[in-house]
Task: structure prediction
Amino acid sequence: MKKRVSGIALAAVGTLLVGGVLAGCGDEADAADEQVDIIEVTVDTDQYVSLDLGQPDPNVGDRYVYSGILRENGREVGHGGGSCEFVRIVDDQTTMQCVLSADFEHGSVTMQALWVEGTSPLDMAITGGTGAYRDARGIFRFWDIATPQERARGEITHRTPE
Result:
């Protein structure tokens, strides 16, 4: 397994990953055909809407929809977007199911997780991708969600491009 840290990779999408190289579950030949890209970016939200089912206060089924620009050292390296749907509300604690996609120069990555609103960090499982990331897996970690300081780190394990 190769570990690659590139400018584009570092600038990719959120800071979501748990440290350490992720090992493949196959044999040694499979592991040799894999690499891990580390992506570290800031997230600038450019569009956001809160969808309310019409009842006052947060309710199960309400949703946030958003998009943002991913930057590494101020340089745009990708963009992404997603939504978080309210799935559980107990007292003042709102749990959401969040699904995101992020596009980079060499492909896109999809991810999802449950998030208790206001907590940080958030670890999102990488569920797949396209292009160079077509068989991606790993984790993206996000900090300071929905603030001007939002940032992310991802460790994306995928096959080495042919």
Observations:
- Strands lie at 2-4, 34-51, 63-72, 75-90, 93-104, 107-116, 122-129, 137-143, 151-159.
